[in-house]
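Exercise 3.2. Students should predict the tertiary structure of the chain below and write it as structure tokens, then compare their answer with the key that follows.

Predict this chain's 3D structure.
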Amino acid sequence: MFQNYKTKTLKKDILSGIIVALVSIPISMGYAQVAGLPVVYGLYGSLLPILVFSLITSSPQFVFGVDATPAALVGATLASLGIVTGSGEAIRLVPVITLVTAGWLLLFYIVRAGKLVSYISTPVMGGFISGIGCTIILMQVAKLFGGSAGTGELFVLIAHILNQLQYFNLLSAVLGIGTIVIILTAKKYVPKFPMSVVLMAVGAALTAVFHIDRYGVKLLPQVSAGLPKLAFPDVSVLGENTGDILLLSFTVALVIVAQTLLASSNYALKYNYKINNNREVLAYAAGNFAGALVGCCPINGSVSRTGIGDQFGARSQVMSLSAAFTMVLVLLFGTGLLQYLPVPVLTGIVICALIGILEFGLAKKLWKTNKQEFLIFMAAFFGVLIFGTIYGVIIGVILSFIAVIIRAVVPPKGFLGMIPGQEGFYALKRNRNAHPVQHTVIYRFSGNLFFANIDTFQNDIENAIKEDTKQVIVDASGIGSIDITAADRLVILNRNLRAKGIRFYLTEHVGAVNDQLRAFGAGSLVEEGVARRTISLALRDAGVDKPYPLENENGLNMKYAFVEAQERLAEFEWAFGNDAEEKMEQIAIEIARQITAANEHSAEALKKAENHVSWGRIGLYDEEELLDRLEMHLSEMAQNNPENESEIEEQIEQRRSIVELKLQHINPEALRMLKQHRHELAMQFKERNPKAYAHMLERRKEHIHRLTKTNPELAAKLRELYGENGEES
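Answer key:
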């Protein structure tokens, strides 16, 4: 951890450690209560475990400590077992849970289970953690207004909150809710400011000066001064709830590995250093063993406190040493001040920390991008919220398997065609200019083929066959393996299609698939030429030669010629799908700003600007559209420098001339598609800005008139494209 240490960061590391320790005081105390322990155990968990972790970890900046998810899991389980928070039974049981968790983590280290992180579904983990966070928030809500903490699941907790309203204290509610509002506001506008520490001090001052406890505001119980005493947990309690403890501790260990290892890996990527995953798991085990010795709940890596250390420039585990030393001073000399801390303030700090672990941003993203994974997230979320953490674990495991099965059974798939003037095969749904090869079905299946998805594979192909289909070609580049069921069905499918006079081909797959076909008794597919190396070879075998005849939207044959192979036509549509036009407009605006800011007069200004935008150089069709959009923004580009308008316009014309010289060789069908798209674009511009549109037409007519003298053939092409008035028809 200190091998790459630089002394110039010493001051920042020490300061960061002090701030992390101060922030940890209210958060750790609150989480100790969440886990069912007296608040002082949160401080104990912020001393020895952090010190042990810092001496073993390979991460130079990650912080270990009492954290939300393990505390929530333990607290919820104690509640389900009917164990009272802060009771002697809880004080005996919790460190045993921590010890068993350390044992699981040590086992994970031995079997090198750091790789398990790769197999945890993000929607499942996000829903699981969010469910736990919401459950604990609901447990704490009543403490905001003077009530007591609740236990149980969603409906029981709601009933408890309503019942506790009889103890409602206005001043407590103002302090608790005010704390939440202030912290969340500060997090948004001044994220580096340790507002939790300030509010803790303000709460203590209010008690000392105004004696707010006399008005019904509850205070923390007195915390005894002194360092924690080391004691081995009473493992005899394992005999009372063995199954619950083993399952809970296994879940906690898995969560610790998943959350901490993923987060520390993200920091390693961010700051370009390496961590040893297996050594990290060993550090987690050692830290939790230390936590068990001081009687604390399971310890986890803290993303929030690591973020605070990062904000203040921490770059080594000197930060953790500084935090541990600061906590020693607090335990020896500062515990007398903690009894002045109002419970509503501490509860507000804890709730804000819990809000930070909620993954509703992930849920929103999944809703927009993948409804299936959104449903998995919500199922895990409500599973924990309604049925509890243990059942939530079971639901999460089942959903993880379901997620894997769904991806395997329904992999990405679709039908392919060709874009006129372009080599290769493209998804018909993704590219509006792509057309099917005449009499041909080209089907891409991007997943291993086995018993659970062979029906989908076969049904997709059979449903795509038309009366004039003569060949079916499978792009199997995504198929890495097959099973015996799939091999048998491929033989049957080939036989059925041949009986209808349709050739069947399996192409683009790795050679190992051919070995599997032969091993499963389907070697005839290889021997009879059904398995071909490429789609082009399959088409040639079927008697379809280049240039391939394509179908247009009316099913008619269309001819085309190839242009430069390196040019990618309509690349934006391929890359951005339905958002292609919006992205193109963003690029046009970005280039316009580059030109305006540079204030260059050279003919290379446009090319330079295009080279420096976020997307980079683009293909012919896209560049032609980009020039059209730039022409539409001409008045905006020249707004600050009107005298440069003609210069900028000349640059656009020069670039357009180069592009049009290439495009004039494209066949009439490709030119027709380009014309139609440009017409739609121009009509949108005309509707938005009629005056600028009229100006653009005037400039375009002048451009075509000049070309009549310099390049008559190109001028004729443009008149055909735009008409005599320069307007798309």
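Discussion points: DSSP finds 31 helices and ten strands in the chain. Residues 559-569 have pLDDT under 50 and may be disordered.
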